[in-house]
Amino acid sequence: MVFTGIKRTFSLKNEEQYETIGVFWDEMAEIYGLENLRGLGYGWHGDTIEYAIGLKNGEIDGCNVRIYLPDGGWEIAMGRTEDLPLLYTEIYKSGRLEYEIEEFTDVGDCVIHYVRKNG
Predict the structure, then answer these.
(1) Ramachandran region, residue 14 (left: φ > 0; alpha: ψ -120 to 50; beta: rest)
(2) Under DSSP, is residue 6 helix (H, G, I), strand (E, B) or coil?
(3) Nearest CA to 2 among 68, 74, 95, 62?
(4) I need a labelling partner for 59 at 20 to 30 A (CA). Which of 4, 31, 32, 48 fits?
């Protein structure tokens, strides 16, 4: 599977990524519509994360990253967008991630597909 999108780097300090990545989502949703997008978190280094937003179908204008993702080994978590920090607390209890793909709906639901580091 290949993920194409627009990549930015975000700080993980004080869990500020929830707000700053949220602003990135708001910017992109204004152009493409929230339910047409998916976000990819990867490349955790110290206190930063690489994060890209792309279209569920097709290639987003201004694409600056192409990531080759594993075809298998994905797990799924679902919940409410306002509970995202709690969802990730549960996910991380079982170990670090290699990749996470987030999708959100206009009614406040979210789906997270994730692959753990080293399997």
Answers:
(1) left
(2) strand
(3) 68
(4) 48
With a CB cutoff of 8 Å and minimum separation 6, the contacts of 30 are none
pLDDT at res. 36? 98
pLDDT, position 117: 82
Helix, strand, or coil (residue 93): coil
3-state secondary structure 66-84: EEECCCCCCEEEEEEHHHH
pTM of the model: 0.94
Report yes or no: 45 and 37 within 8 Å, Cβ to Cβ: no
For residue 48 the two structure tokens come to 């930063």
Q: Give CA–CA dist 21/80, Å, rounded.
A: 16
